[in-house]
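Good morning,

Attaching, inline, the backbone tokens for the sequence recovery test we're adding to the shared suite. The designed sequence is right after.
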């Protein structure tokens, strides 16, 4: 209909480019997770700027291999971690950076939603190792937590596949220690009928229903706490925090922005 050339395999596209049959300005590598490494290397060797969909790879060893290979090529490469570029996340990061919350003590997060059967029917690889919600969904959440609270130095977790029984997990509970000394916990499930996901709370993707009163992160500090993405702030009045004093409640304002464009 639009006379756009299409190919079944990345290698065929690259060959058509080498032969001068098509012009390629850049590539969005949105293939199944296990194909990211070879695909990204092929794009780099061809000199084509590429956005690699998250996760970068399914294992640390593969990620290290890919990074070392990319160092050999002066080609722009980027991973699809766009959420930290959203208006809400940018505002949260700025508030934490300027000390609005005091020192961050803890963060609680959750991504609980229900993926229908058609989601797995459309991509059976999502039922296999490397295709579960940890690498498809949680990878975004980890980037958001690092953006707000800094680097993670220790992790403990439990996972379950009790609901669907697939090879991959469907529910995970995780605890974190950040290098700052702050602690965190996160609950992830793609078998939970709930609105607690970034898609269903931020309103950035209009394909999802939205609960404007729900937060998926609660960042607690010594002076104030922040719910994200409602941006509701609970703040101790005066010079000293005191649980006997009523908290002042306000909301941070921010400009809506398309995080994909910003990234």
């Amino acid at each position: 209909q639009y006379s756009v050339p299409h190919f079944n395999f990345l290698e065929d596209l690259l060959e058509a480019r080498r032969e001068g049959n098509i012009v390629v300005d850049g590539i969005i590598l949105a293939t199944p997770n296990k194909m990211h490494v070879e695909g990204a290397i092929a794009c780099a060797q061809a000199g084509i700027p590429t956005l690699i969909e998250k996760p970068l790879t399914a294992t640390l060893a593969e990620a290290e291999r890919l990074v070392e290979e990319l160092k050999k090529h002066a080609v722009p490469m980027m991973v699809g971690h766009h959420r930290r570029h959203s208006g809400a996340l940018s505002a949260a990061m700025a508030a934490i950076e300027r000390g609005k919350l005091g020192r961050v003590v803890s963060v609680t997060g959750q991504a609980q939603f229900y993926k229908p059967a058609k989601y797995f029917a459309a991509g059976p690889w999502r039922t296999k190792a490397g295709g579960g919600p940890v690498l498809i969904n949680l990878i975004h959440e980890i980037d958001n937590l690092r953006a707000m609270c800094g680097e993670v130095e220790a992790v403990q977790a439990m996972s379950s596949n009790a609901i669907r029984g697939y090879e991959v997990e469907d529910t995970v509970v995780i605890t974190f220690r950040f290098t700052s000394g702050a602690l965190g916990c996160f609950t992830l499930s793609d078998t939970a009928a709930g609105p607690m996901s970034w898609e269903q709370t931020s309103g950035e993707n209009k394909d999802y229903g939205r609960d404007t009163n729900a937060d998926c992160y609660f960042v607690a500090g010594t002076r104030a706490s922040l719910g994200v993405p409602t941006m509701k702030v609970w703040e101790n009045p005066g010079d000293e925090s005191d649980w006997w004093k009523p908290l002042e409640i306000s909301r941070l304002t921010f400009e809506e922005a398309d995080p994909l464009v910003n990234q």
